[in-house]
Structures are given as structure tokens and as C-alpha cells.
């Protein structure tokens, strides 16, 4: 993916799958706003007229039966399942020839090859931002360029997200929602301990000092809970690599070269070492995945967590019983005063199975975009907000939507959000500071896994040789993965 750095001031609507990575986490934890019935009409549903005379009546030819399997939310996502069920009902009313099969398979880069080889992958499945080039190169994502170019609203799709699945001049995925990684802070924990709340334009030193001041190791309370297991650990740390001015890899002369074992990488790793050993601010049991770290935040066992903001906010408010005024969403801290608040840019996407027939692919595209830019989509979102209010729960939108926030449709959505006091509002000041940077172009998940091992070494060994660990991880990535890549 191309390197993109941007300021999200214009992207504020308020507001991401499950992640890590993602989600995603991701990170796939953001509230789903649904998808549109304004997609290109199906070629499988045609009307033909047979003339039997001057006043002959047109006869309708029944459309051919089409079956598609679609990504279906997991059982714990009750509200999202209700939204999806409503969408399926409306879709099949419009397309009665289509049968929808629900698939609970969650995208996994270690399983997708097996699923494709066994022809068991859904017709329409979810994935995350890092996977565009990976899926396209292996032939595991359908080329939907023609479908996308014929889509009525293609020019209103948010390019910051959609462009991540445009490889060369071909389209391989449909944007759903996205995020720029930030830091979510339990303000109440800080004020209860008399710890000053830092400004949103904060630095690494501010994060370190705040985490150290609020931590109570003997009581099992940490100042911050960096993720320490799974690929999430490498994903969390990469934010600091970017803030220090580093890169994951470089692409030059057709070759990919590991670049994270740089001065910037060492600086970012040294900061992690300070959090663990100088500030004693991380959990004693640091091996926390996304769910563990976000759960610790919701339960008041850590004051800060690094993630796509909507996930921790959702769990804090709707599972942890926290109040909106208790939660502050921060951008990632700048390495130094005046620096950029760079966070990993990620998102959730839908991909169509290339093994599906032309008719199945078309219907999968129609389903994916069924509620996009539509009044029905707005109604579905509003009903979800109302239901959450009835259940005494908050609605937490994604940080970045599939549409441009300043578009006509974006303003319609904002108007709906503004009607309800149970919709979580992100501060415009925070949004203006966010600086998103896409993940690596090649073997991102393998890189995250390699860095997870390094992070664990730093958190478990005070006298670890950090430069040696970085060099070893870079050497492993280079020999095992990057040397096999030829960039045209």
C-alpha cells in the first residue's frame, strides 16, 4: 500500500474489526452502520417481453436462483446480528431469487489459503486493511473493478479507506469502516489519584509520567496496558516506530528491505523498556491480547489502552459501566513536542470470493453495498441507536466511515447522531490531531508476529540487548519473507 499521511479534521462525524490487527479489531469492534440498496442492478434479474401481437402483454422471466454466503457477526455481537438479520430480510425482498447463507467464519490469514483451496470460503467475507495486496496477489480476492466502476456512489466512497484495496488500477475490496490508532484514557482513574490530565497534544514523556503516576503494581493496577501477545503486540508497538519517524520496510529497485531495526526503531523500543522497567507502569502479566487489554481497561485495571478508539470506548461504556465523561480519547503521543501524532491507519473491508460465479459476485457486491448511501441505511442506524438507548447502552460509531464525512450523506448521518444523547461524541480537537499512516505493503502480519517476540523480550528481561533483538527480527523477516518478493 502507498504511504499516506493525513489529518482527520475534515473527517469528523464522530466515531472500526476486529483487530489486530485487525480487527479490528480491531480490531472488528466498531458499530456497523450497514450497507446500500443503490448498487448496480443485477444482470441475473431481467425482464423480457414476448410480442404476440400489437397489444401483447410483457411476460416476466423468473430470475435464476443464486445462493451467496456472507460474513455474519459472531454470537456475542447481538446488536450487529439484529442489524444483519434485518438487512438480509430487506435484501431478499428486493432480490427474491437470492438465498443468503450465514457464515460465522472470521478472516484469518493463516486459514484463508486452506479455505480457498477447499472451496469453503464465503462468497463475501470480511478482512482488514493489511490484506489487500496479499489477497490480490494470491488470487484470493475477486477483481471487482467493473462492478465498482458501475456503482452509482463510487465517487462518494472515502478514498482514505477505499484506496487501500485498489491495487494498481484494479479494485479488490469494499471499504466498511476504519480507524487511526489512538490511546483511550480512563480520566476517572487519573482524577481519583490526583494525577494531572495531559493535553491532547501530548508526548511520550507525558504518557510515561502519567502511566507511572497512576500505576499501583501491588494492587494489580497498571498505568498503561500495551498489548503483549499475538500479532497485536507488534501492531501496538508500530505506532511508536512511526512516531519516531521509522518505517517497517523500504521498497526500492524491485526489492523489499526490512527497515524497522533503525535508530527510530531502537528509540521506540527503548520507550517500551522505560514503561516496563523505569515506570513499572505495565501489567505484571504483560501477555495481553486485544481482548485482554481492552477488558482490563473496561474493568478499571489499567488507565490507558492503545487501540482503534471505538472498541475500548464501547466496552468501557457498555460493559464496564463507565460514564462518557470518564473516558477520553487521545491521539497517539508525539515522540517530542511539536511532532506528529501518528497512528496506524487500519480498517475493515469486504472481499468477494474469486471462485464465485459472475452472478454470485454481482449479488455479493449488491449485498455488501445494499445500505450504503441509502435512507434505509439511515433508518437502520437510527433504529440501532434507539434500541441501545432502550437497553441503556451507548452507540459508538467508527472513527472513519466508508463515506466522506463532509458529503451530503455524511451530513445526514451526523444529523441522526446529533438527535441522541447516547451516541458517543469524539472531540473535534482530538480528530484534528490524528495522523494516520497505512501499514506495511508486504507481509504485515508476519512482521507483527516477529515484533511481538521482541516486545516480549523487552517486557520480560530488564537487561535485554534491544538492538540485537531488532536486528535478529529484521534478519528473520528479510531472509524468510522479503528476499522472496520481486516488486514490479
Annotation, overall tally of beta strands: 17
User: Which radius of gyration do the C-alpha atoms yield?
Assistant: 23 Å
Total separate domains? 2
Largest sheet: 6 strands, mixed
Helicity level, as a percent range?
Answer: 25-40%
- CATH class value of the largest domain: Alpha Beta
> Number of helical runs?
17
> What is the averaged pLDDT score?
87
Region (Disordered): 24-58
Keywords: Signal
Signal peptide: 1-19
Protein name: ABC transporter substrate-binding protein
Tell me what you see in this structure.
The protein is an alpha+beta fold and 488 residues long. The protein has two domains: 14-44 and 64-179 and 347-427, 3-Layer(aba) Sandwich (D-Maltodextrin-Binding Protein, domain 2), CATH 3.40.190; 182-307 and 443-484, D-Maltodextrin-Binding Protein, domain 2 (3-Layer(aba) Sandwich). Helix content is 37%, strand content 15%. The protein has 17 helices and 17 strands. Strand 3 (66-71), helix 1 and strand 4 (98-103) form a beta-alpha-beta unit. The longest helix has 17 residues, at 78-94. It is globular.
Key features of this structure:
488 residues, alpha+beta, D-Maltodextrin-Binding Protein, domain 2, 6-stranded mixed β-sheet, 3-stranded antiparallel β-sheet, 37% helix, globular, disordered N terminus, SBP, signal, Bact_solute-bd_prot1, ABC transporter substrate-binding protein
Amino acid at each position: 500500500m502507498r504511504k499516506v499521511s493525513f489529518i482527520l479534521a475534515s473527517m469528523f462525524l464522530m466515531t472500526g474489526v476486529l483487530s489486530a490487527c485487525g480487527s479490528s479489531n480491531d480490531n472488528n469492534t466498531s458499530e456497523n452502520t450497514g450497507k446500500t440498496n443503490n448498487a448496480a442492478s443485477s444482470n441475473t434479474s431481467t425482464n423480457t417481453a414476448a410480442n404476440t401481437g400489437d397489444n401483447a402483454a410483457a411476460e416476466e422471466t423468473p430470475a435464476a436462483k443464486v445462493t451467496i454466503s456472507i460474513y455474519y457477526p459472531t454470537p456475542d455481537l447481538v446488536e450487529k446480528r439484529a442489524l444483519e438479520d434485518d438487512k438480509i430480510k430487506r435484501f431478499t425482498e428486493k432480490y427474491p431469487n437470492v438465498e443468503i447463507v450465514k457464515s460465522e467464519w472470521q478472516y484469518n490469514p493463516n486459514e484463508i489459503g486452506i479455505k480457498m483451496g477447499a472451496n469453503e470460503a464465503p462468497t463475501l467475507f470480511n478482512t482488514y486493511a493489511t490484506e489487500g495486496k496479499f489477497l490480490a496477489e494470491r488470487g484470493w480476492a475477486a477483481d471487482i473493478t467493473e462492478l465498482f466502476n458501475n456503482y452509482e456512489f463510487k465517487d462518494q466512497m472515502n478514498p482514505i479507506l477505499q484506496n487501500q484495496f485498489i491495487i494498481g488500477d484494479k479494485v479488490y475490496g469494499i471499504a466498511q469502516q476504519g480507524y487511526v490508532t489512538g490511546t483511550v484514557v480512563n480520566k476517572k482513574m487519573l482524577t481519583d489519584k490526583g494525577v494531572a490530565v495531559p493535553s491532547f497534544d501530548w508526548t511520550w514523556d507525558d504518557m510515561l509520567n502519567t502511566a507511572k503516576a497512576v500505576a499501583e503494581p501491588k494492587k494489580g493496577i497498571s498505568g498503561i496496558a500495551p498489548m503483549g501477545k499475538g500479532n497485536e503486540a507488534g501492531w501496538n508497538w508500530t505506532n511508536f516506530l512511526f512516531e519516531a519517524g521509522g518505517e517497517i520496510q523500504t521498497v526500492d529497485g524491485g526489492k523489499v528491505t526490512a527497515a524497522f531495526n533503525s535508530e527510530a526503531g531502537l528509540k521506540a523500543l527503548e520507550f517500551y523498556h522505560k514503561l516496563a522497567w523505569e515506570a513499572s507502569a505495565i501489567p505484571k502479566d504483560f501477555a495481553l491480547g486485544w481482548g485482554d487489554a481492552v477488558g482490563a481497561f473496561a474493568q478499571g485495571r489499567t488507565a490507558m489502552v492503545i487501540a482503534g478508539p471505538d472498541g475500548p470506548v464501547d466496552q468501557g461504556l457498555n460493559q464496564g459501566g463507565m460514564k462518557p465523561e470518564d473516558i477520553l480519547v487521545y491521539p497517539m503521543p508525539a515522540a517530542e513536542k511539536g511532532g506528529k501524532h501518528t497512528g496506524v491507519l487500519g480498517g475493515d473491508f469486504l472481499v468477494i470470493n474469486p471462485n464465485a460465479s459472475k452472478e454470485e459476485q454481482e449479488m455479493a457486491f449488491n449485498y455488501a453495498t445494499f445500505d450504503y448511501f441509502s435512507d434505509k441505511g439511515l433508518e437502520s442506524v437510527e433504529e440501532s441507536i434507539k434500541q441501545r438507548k432502550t437497553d441503556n447502552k451507548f452507540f459508538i460509531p467508527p472513527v472513519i466511515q466508508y463515506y466522506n464525512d463532509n458529503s451530503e450523506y455524511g451530513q445526514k448521518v451526523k444529523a441522526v447522531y446529533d438527535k441522541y444523547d447516547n451516541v458517543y461524541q469524539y472531540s473535534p480537537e482530538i480528530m484534528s490531531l490524528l495522523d494516520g499512516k497505512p501499514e506495511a505493503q508486504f507481509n504485515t502480519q508476519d512482521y507483527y508476529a516477529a515484533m511481538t517476540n521482541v516486545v516480549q523480550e523487552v517486557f520480560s528481561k530488564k537487561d535485554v540487548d534491544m538492538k540485537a533483538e531488532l536486528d535478529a527480527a529484521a534478519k528473520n523477516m528479510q531472509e524468510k519473507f522479503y528476499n522472496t518478493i520481486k516488486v514490479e
